Structures are given as C-alpha cells and as structure tokens.
Here is the input.
Amino acid sequence: MAEKQKLLEIKNLKQYFNVGKPNEVRAVDNVSFDIYKGEVMGLVGESGCGKSTTGRTIIRLYNATGGEVLYDGVNVHGKKSKRQLKDFNRKMQMIFQDPYASLNPRLKIADVIAEGIDIHGLAKSKQERMERVYELLETVGLNKEHANRYPHEFSGGQRQRIGIARALAVQPEFIIADEPISALDVSIQAQVVNLMKQLQKEKQLTYLFIAHDLSMVKYISDRIGVMYFGKMVELAPADELYKNPLHPYTQSLLSAIPSPDPISERTRKRRNYDPASHHYEDNEPIEFREVTPGHFVLCSEKEYKLYQAQSR
Amino acid sequence: MEKILEVKDLNISFHTFSGEVKAIRGISFDLFKGETLAIVGESGSGKSVTTKAIMRLLPEHNSEIKGGEILFDGKDLTKLHDKQMQKIRGHDISMIFQDPMTSLNPTMKIGNQIMEPLIKHQNMSKHAAKERAIELLKLVGIPKPEIRVNQYPHQFSGGMRQRVVIAIALACNPKILIADEPTTALDVTIQAQILELMKDLQKKIDTSIIFITHDLGVVANVADRVAVMYGGKIVEIGTADEIFYNPQHPYTWGLISSMPDMDTDDEELYSIPGTPPDLLDPPKGDAFAPRNPYVMKIDLEQEPPFFKVSDTHYAATWLLHPDAPKVEPPEAVKRRQNQYVGTKGGK
Amino acid sequence: MTNKDIVISKDLFEPAHVDPSKSEKIAKASLNFWQDSWLRIRKNKGAVISMIILILLIIMAFVGPFLTPYEYDTQNTKHNNLPPRIQGLENVHWLPFDGTLSRRDGTEYNAYETRKVDAYYWFGTDNLGRDLFARVWKGTQVSLFIAFMAALIDMLIGVSYGAVSGYIGGKTDSIMQRIIEVIVGIPNLIIVVLMILVLKPGIVPIIVALTITGWTSMARVVRAQVLKFKAQEFVLASKTLGASNVSIIFKHMIPNMFGIIIINTMFSIPNAIFFEAFLSFIGLGLQEPHASLGTLVESGYKSMIAFPYQMIIPSIMIALIMVCFNLVADGLRDALDPKMRD
Ligand SMILES: Nc1ncnc2c1ncn2[C@@H]1O[C@H](COP(=O)(O)OP(=O)(O)O)[C@@H](O)[C@H]1O
Ligand SMILES: Nc1ncnc2c1ncn2[C@@H]1O[C@H](COP(=O)(O)OP(=O)(O)O)[C@@H](O)[C@H]1O
Ligand SMILES: [Mg+2]
Ligand SMILES: [Mg+2]
Here is the structure.
C-alpha cells in the first residue's frame, strides 16, 4: 500500500445535548481518530453509544460542542462562506439507516435522486438531468422505468440503493454510511454491501461505515473503532481487532455475536463487561493510547503496560 | 418424540385495496415437545402471519384462513370460538413480540401485568399471584424483584422489559412459547443474555418454542430444528445441523452464503439477486425461480413438492428430483458441507 | 409430505433462462398519493354520500335564491308567517308541504286558503313575509362563505406560524408557544364579543373573530409535524446535500403534511359554522336583512311554537352541513393517514 494520506482528522470531538440541563447527554465525548483516503473505517458499538451522532457531527448536521473536524486540512465547522459550504456538501455525503424514512414519500424517484444535481446545478438541461438520473439508477442496479415511481413501491433493499444513488449524484469523495444495512434482510444486505464495495473501487471513495452488526463490518472495513457511551474505547485494523481485542468491552461485544454455525454456538462462552472492573483511581489519566502500531485502546498507564505485554 | 402442535396445509389471505395477498400458501409443520423450532426467512415471507394464525391474532376485518388446520391438544385452533381460544392464549400457548415497549401496558404496574394471566387462568388469589410474580421476575434475572414488581415499564431498560415480557409469557408454564423476533430490537450483548435466559427457562419448564428470526446467528444459537420460509411457503425444513451444514434448497444456500463468516475477506459476498416475490400475484411455478441461479424450465411451470433428504430433512426444490442435473452449491456451502463431514467423521 | 415418484418429462429439467432485470420489476401500477387516497376514500360509503350532499348544498347555496320568484330581502307583510307549500306535493298529506298549520287546540287549518293567498312559498315565509326558501339558501351561502374563509385564514396563519416555530426551534419556539398558550387561555367568547363590539356585526368582523383564536390548533398540529420531520432522515439527507431552509420546508415538509392540514381544515369548517350560528343566537351575528343560517334559526326560535317550520328548516340545514363535513373529514383521515397504508 502506498503512503497513507489523511483525508479526515477528528480531534477531541465533543457533542453534548441539552447542555446545562439535568438531562444533559454527552453523546460524543472527546473522540479522536483519522480517516485515510480510500479506506473503509468501521464504527461499532451498541445503540445509543453515539455512533450516529459522531457521523452527523462530522457532516455538520449538528454543530460540535467542542473539538474539530479537519477535511483535507480544513476545519469543517466554524464560519464558512456559502460557496465553501456547498463545496463541503458535495465532498461529503451520507447514507441513512431507515430505508422507509430516508426517502421523501411524496417525491418521484427521479426527483429524489436529482435533488443534489438541482441544488448544485450539475445539469445544464432537463434532458441532461434525466440522463444523469438514469445513469445513477443503473449504477445501483435499477433501471429507467423506476424513475417515475414513488418510494413506497420499492422494497427495503431497493430503497437503500436509491439512497446510495442520491448520495452519488453529487460525486462525493467521502461517504458516511449510518447503519445502511441494519434494516435489511440478510440476503439483501449482501447486495448492498457488494454494491458499496464495488463503488468504492470504481470511484475511489472513502467510507465511514457505522454498524452494529459486527460480521459485516469486519468484512467491509479496513479499520474498526469501537465506541462505548460516547467514548472510543478501541481502534485497530479489522483483523487485529478480531484476533486480539484488548479492551474488555470489545471482548464482551465480540463474544456476544452469534455466528451462523451451530457447532461453534454450542460451545461459545460469553463474557460480560463491567465498567467497574477497571478499578481506575480517581485522578488516573485515562487516555487513548497506541498499544501496538495502529492499535489504540482507551486505558490507564497501568493497563497500557499490561496490554503491551499481552500483545507481544 | 411427542407431537404437540401440528400445522397442516395452512392457507391464509389478506384482502387489501390492491387485491388478495396470498400471504401463506400451504404450510405444514409439526412441533415436538421440548424442542425449539426456528422459522427463518426474509421479511414478508409470512413468518409472523403463521404464528399469529396459531394464536388467532390475525386482524379480523381483512384476513381469511382459506384452508388447512392447526391441531393442538386434539382441537383445531382455526375452528375454536373466541371464548375457547382465550382459555388457550396465555395459558397453553403464549407469545413474545419484537418490541418490548409496545407489548407492555405503560399505565400498569409490572407486577399487575404478570399477575393478570395467573389470576385469570389459574384462579390464583391476589396474594399468591403476587408471590409468583416476584418469583418469575427473579427467574428471568431481574434484581430486587420485590421492588421492581411495583414499578412501571418506563422504569425498565429495553433488555429488562423483554425479560418482563418473557416472565409474563411464562407465567402459566405454557406448553408452547411463540417468540416473534424477540431480540431483533436489542443490542447483541443484551440479545445474548436473553437467548441464554430463554434456553435456560426452556429446560426448567420443558416448553416447546417457535422462534422467529431473520438472523442466522441467532438460529444457530437456539434452534433444534429450522424451517426456512420463502414467499409464503416453507421451502426447507430439517435439524439445525442439516440446514446449516447440508442445505439443499438454493434459497437456503443463498441465505447461508450471503453472511460473511469471520474469514471471508476480499472475495465478493454471495448475494441473492432481485427482490422477494409480490404475494399479490405470486409467480407461476416456484416462487423463487426468478432469483434462482440454478433455475430449470420446470421451476417456471410447476411448484416443487417436498423431497425427502433424511427422516428429518425435507426440501422443496426440483433440484432434488432424480432427473435433475447435479449442480454445485456456492463455495461457502461446500466449505460447510466438507467441514461437517470432517467433524462427523472425527466423532 | 413427500412426493418421490412424479413422472415428468426430462427436458423440463434443462436450465431455463430468466431475464435478471425482471426480478427488479414492479408489477403494481404506479399510484401517486392522491390517486391512492381516492381509491381509499371511495370505499367509505358515508364519506362519499356526504361529499355528494355537500356538493349539492354548495350548488344550491348559489343557485337556490334564483329558483323562486321571490327575493330573500323583499318584505310582504300580507304574506307573513305562511307555512311551506309546494306544487304537486301539497296533495300528499303526510308531507309537511300542504300549507297547513295547527292551532293551539290542535286543530289544523290551511293558512293559504284561510288568508286567501294564491302563492307557493316552498319553505314558507317569516314574520315579515320574506320567502324562506330564498333566505335559507342565501343564509347557507353566507354561512359557508364565513366558514370557508375562516378555515382558509386559520390554515394560512396556522401553517406558517407552526412551521416557523417548529423549524427554528429553541428560544423562538418557546416564545411562540407561550403566545399560543396565552391566546388559548383567554376564553374565546370574550375575545369575540369584544371584537364584535368594536367592529360592529358583519361578515368580516365575524370572520376576524373566528380566526383570531381559531388558528392555534392548526399551528400546534403543524409544529408537531415539523418537529417530527426535522429529525426524519429524508430531511437530513436533503440538508447534507445543501438544500436551503425554504426548500426543505416547502418541498419536503409541507407536502407530507397535506393530509393532516386538509383533515384539520375539514374539521374546523363545521366548527366555524356552529360558532357563527352561536354568535347569531346570542345576538352578535349578522344584522337584518342579511341572513345566515344562524340568524335564521335565531329568528325562527322566537316563534317556534306557532310556526315551527321557521326554525326547523335552517336547523336541519346546519345539522346536515356539520354531519357531512365531519363524515368527510373522518373518511379523509382514514384515507390520508399514512399509518393505515398497506
Ligand atoms: N438530538 C438529540 N437530542 C438529545 N439527545 C440526543 C439527540 N440525538 C441523540 N441523542 C442521544 O445521544 C446518544 C447517542 O445517540 P446516537 O448517536 O443516535 O447513538 P447510536 O447511533 O450509536 O445508536 C443517545 O443517548 C441519544 O439518546
Ligand atoms: N394486516 C395485514 N394486511 C394485509 N397484508 C398483510 C397483513 N399482515 C401481513 N400481511 C402480508 O402478509 C405477508 C407476510 O407478512 P409477515 O408474516 O408479517 O412477514 P414476516 O415474515 O416478515 O413476519 C406480507 O406480504 C404482508 O404484506
Ligand atoms: Mg444510530
Ligand atoms: Mg414479522
């Protein structure tokens, strides 16, 4: 692999909701990681741990409470001219989780897909616009005839592919996929994942792939980050994470995934995670530390030593 | 083994604005005492409708049981009066739904919700029912049950709520427990706990379970036998080992090989092309034919009958007909077959 | 369960070819929202019949006054208080159109014959001898106009206010919601009475009086919808594409609320009609010689014992309009509510 180039740098990102009120939520709390050009970065963790919020803050759907997101070295948040904003909108796109809620039920598929084309003026004539739409439909495995239909006429997998076409319409470089397959059936998940992988190769895309299904994430991702209650607890190359999980939460998460294999299921032992098991002292600095090259764990100095010894 | 439930050639339709949806098209299966039968299949394949028919919970205004019978305890459930059915529901057969929030009454104390079936079906006194409710909460692993009985559903987390739902379902020691995607809305770690709990309880009270899910990992974890549904029919049924290590139906092949196992990496995932059949107008012949890479002319003409693979294993595909050509299943399936033969030989 | 020995010719076991693009095909005809809704509402008999009755009523409200030779505001004191009489139907004695009235002692007499009037007043006349047929339709026209205008203005104000409040959110939303609470908190009647005292009774003041408090329910409904849609993924998708706020509200949110807006409006029309009638009844309605259904009922009420038809006919009209609007609105709710879709 050639020298890896950083596309995004997320530094100490914080996103708090209801700040100052009794129901304050620290949905994302001091998260830092990089995303390299052309890679698939996976993000896993149980629901409510802040995965979507991380993705949405990166793409500026929310204003960050603290920290910064650098895209090609430029801060995404902060004041921008209209032009700069539009540039960001074209470079970064998002694919959503719920195939039923992510398409406006009153728009025809052609208008759903062409929204980005219209906003950014990417087609000079009506005809060019429609040609782009047909081309995009074909890219995602649908055809011309589908352009004049409404979302409710499509199945979940087809809708998800329409959502992909909508994102591709503005020719983005970076796509955040927020659980794009969790709502789909197993047989359809494979279709969408294959499509995403193929598009990534053809268009040199970079993905942030959010999921809670760990087997698909492992398959599609180069590196995986594990989140727990707003914090990133472990980040490592996909294989490394599965072979050598260090943080006890990652271990419990991995041990909980049932595999489609009755024989191994009969003997699988589940591990529970108890946050109290760390026995952190009150002022002990708990930081994100690099245990082996590329393998980061949120840990104390003591644990760090221990993990290093384990990984040798 | 003792048969506890027998479904015979069940046909169910819905009358909708667009026409008649033939949701269930001739389903037959047996449920044995103490076993877990998993029903898998993609959404819309008719899993929920089948189980709702057993519980007689189908919407009355637009559904119709067009034929077949459901035999339980010598009675045909499709023909019982509502009153008779009420005696069976929650007592002999109970059900757990996917969403633990909507299956609990938010305005009623947890304890009272557990006591309700006990008082109704078992004529327990209020006091005895409360004792039993506390016992049940303890059984499903809820700490401090004496305090928890007096709380409301919103004071419980999602996983806890599903435990309560299980406690209610098991209150009367039902002979059959139907679980419709009971863990789909939960996180993997919570799911693992709930599955363990269900298996544990099953051993204790010897219930038979019908477990609906679309997650093959969960199936592998809980099932003794597996029925695979497609387009309103069962296309393959067998023991868990038979379905996972020696599947015969090309749809089952597709399902199994489209899941990456921990060591598929760069190769493209096997995927089933196309979309599920429209049950408003099911295709002629085999409903799976349009998506079947091994499709033969006969698939487009005639529905395949069940072919016997072993005493416990049947599959409805023309590929099993003696005259059909021998085809190679996808790589992932072949790997599984070999692996299984290997381990079996080793034993 | 098995079926091992079916005999089938061997050539059927040859591989077949299925066009792969076919498996993505959608068989159902493409229906848009309105077509689909129409199919649904058509199945609701009550709603369809109500709709037909309403259409007939609306046509009659405009055409009715021209069908009789008499003007709605011409007084003819010689012909006052005549009961309904219709050509042809006057001989069917069980129908109330034979021109008879009953005295206090219960005996019946024909008012037209005793007073030697050779005319046919289809709905009879009032105490000033004005033709009630013309007046009832004229009154229906005025009442419907007031109700429609009030509903329309409610809708415009309610939708804009609710959309702005929900979309901007935060402090603005809190302030705007408090304002609504204050308006709702003051008894409706007091505001209306004050308004009418200031503006003098008339069509416009009544409409203003109705709308000054009426828009709040629409505003609340729309705000709730906007809040819901704000978090929906298709709106987020649109934001990430760089869509402007205006286009998000008008292209993505409002079209998805059409159903709810229409239903709300349909329920507010009969309310407006009822409220107008109520205002007339307490003497704050239109002034003579103008007529609305409310004023007709009110003046009929005064002579209810002697000339019951003067009150019964406009009352039936009000009841009919209200029932029909409610049934149509109910039907629309079932037809447009996306939750009911399958
Ligand atoms: N707009 C919001 N306002 C308040 N709390 C929110 C909002 N969005 C998310 N949260 C909270 O932030 C936490 C993280 O949510 P989310 O990022 O959606 O988790 P995930 O995607 O990992 O399931 C949750 O506790 C959620 O309730
Ligand atoms: N109440 C209903 N009205 C009309 N059609 C229904 C209804 N319930 C289920 N169906 C149809 O029956 C089929 C099977 O549904 P279901 O059993 O819920 O599938 P699943 O396998 O996902 O549980 C689907 O095609 C669905 O559209
Ligand atoms: Mg999420
Ligand atoms: Mg279901």
About this structure: Chain A has one domain: 6-229. Chain A touches chain C through 40 residues (CB under 8 Å). The domain at 6-229 of chain A is CATH 3.40.50.300 (Rossmann fold). The two ends of chain A are 24 Å apart (CA to CA).
